[in-house]
Amino acid sequence: MLPTKARRIVWGALLALTPLTLFADAQSGADFQKALRLYEAKEYAKAVPLLENLAKRGNKAAMYRLANLYEKGLGVPQDYKEAAHWYKEAARSYSYTVATGSEHHDVHAKTFAERLKAQFTPASTRAASAAALAKVDTPTPETKSFLDDMASGRFFGLTPYKTNYLLPVSVASRSFKRQPSGYKSYAIADEIVPLPDGASREALYGEYDKKVEVEFQFSLKKNLTYNLFGYNEYITAAYTQQSFWQLYSKSGPFRETNYMPEFYVAIPTSAAIDADYGLKVTKWGFIHQSNGQEGYRSRSWNRLYVEGLFQWGNLFVKPRVWYRLPEKDKPADWYRGYTVDENGTKHLTDPLAYDDRDDNPDILDYMGYGDLTVNYLWGNHQFGGLFRYNFGKGGHNRGAIQLTWSYPFFGSKNTFWYAKLFNGYGLSLIDYNVNNTVASFGFAFSRGLME
Fold it and tell me: What are phi and psi of 112, to 5 degrees?
């Protein structure tokens, strides 16, 4: 088990970020939104001083807009040299698009009621997108395309969250166990209620007949509000669904599907923290994960989590820690799969009994208290890694490593070759306590750079 002192240090360090992220850069965010409103209202002369101040403090979106004003002589004398300077500074990080609009709703209004009203206008989406764009430093065109889509509010305001992929070939090193819903295991059922002909359920149904399957995932998010509470925060709802399909088996069943609705608040850090440590955003959220099954096939857990997104050049690092919301345990006999009466006779337990209690009380023994995600951009390639470790919880050292690679599919902007290698525990919820190695190959339709 992770030592109490170590857990306190981890949580203490993350919680210490709260006042820094909430208060350190509130004025900077308000200045940027004010400059953006003036820019969109074509009050360029008033926008220039604010943009210059923000640009000097490292705001990339302000740099681009300031360069645009100098180039066209809007609000300032036309100065190509100054324009080139700020374009160059902005291009070092990101080539921003400039959009104009006619709505002037104040997401930075003084009162909560006014900010609430502004959430229901396109201005809120643009403001949130611009604030997010201003935190990112990367020259890659793939990230530019992704962020352009986010800024434009395409897809009815829905944008990709985690990587969306289809992997037609996913090969495991060991056969996948088939978990029945009516029994703890087929072996226990064979012992207590043998079949009339002496056949073995375990031999007949205990494993899927193929180690090769199809895996796919789709993941979307929707920004609900921006700056509702005045801290430049954005509140987001997200949904991810991951499926494992035994397509090449005789009947082609879905082996497992995991459903992951999520809500989180993302708070940009101050310019000083960004510059000194590379910490762009902290994220505070709730995530539910379940497989929608019943009886002994049912798996679920709920977590609160805190994470930070760091960026150093083309390297993105995201440490995350979570706290599992406790649930009441079922009786020990249910987890064992049978009861024993006063005569010593075994009886199968009711699989649907206590269905409002914990299906998997030992899941932290395998999944640990958090994970570390790493992404690195190298030209058009994106390399990723996911690392989990349980710090010896449950008396054993367990964890998982996942490595990914993606590359544009014949130059496509939104389709990529995608390869994934997983080793360890927790490939899916039904496999959370099974150690397996799986290599997969196929296509991705978005990249989860900042998932």
Answer: -60, -40
Residue 81: φ, ψ to 5°: -65, -45
Question: From the candidates 145, 288, 381, 428, which is the catalytic residue?
Answer: 288
**Catalytic residue chosen out of the listed positions 185, 200, 249, 290:** 290
Structure confidence by residue, pLDDT tens digits, 374-396? 999 998 999 999 999 999 988 89
Say how far apart CA 425 and CA 445 lie, in whole Å. Answer: 26
Place of tokens 């199809």: 214
Contact 128, 223 (CB under 8 A): yes
Q: What is the DSSP string of 361-427?
A: TTHHHHHTTEEEEEEEEETTEEEEEEEEE-TTGGGS--EEEEEEEEEEGGG-SS-EEEEEEEEEE-S
User: Measured between alpha carbons, how far is 331 from 354 in angstroms, rounded to an integer?
Assistant: 8
Residue 412 burial (CB < 10 Å; 0-12/13-18/19+)?
Answer: exposed
Look up 290 and say whether it is catalytic: yes
> pLDDT tens digits for 283-304?
999 999 999 999 999 999 999 9
Angstrom distance (rounded) from CA 347 to CA 339: 5
| Domain positions in the chain | 4-126, 165-444
CATH number of 165-444: 2.40.230.10
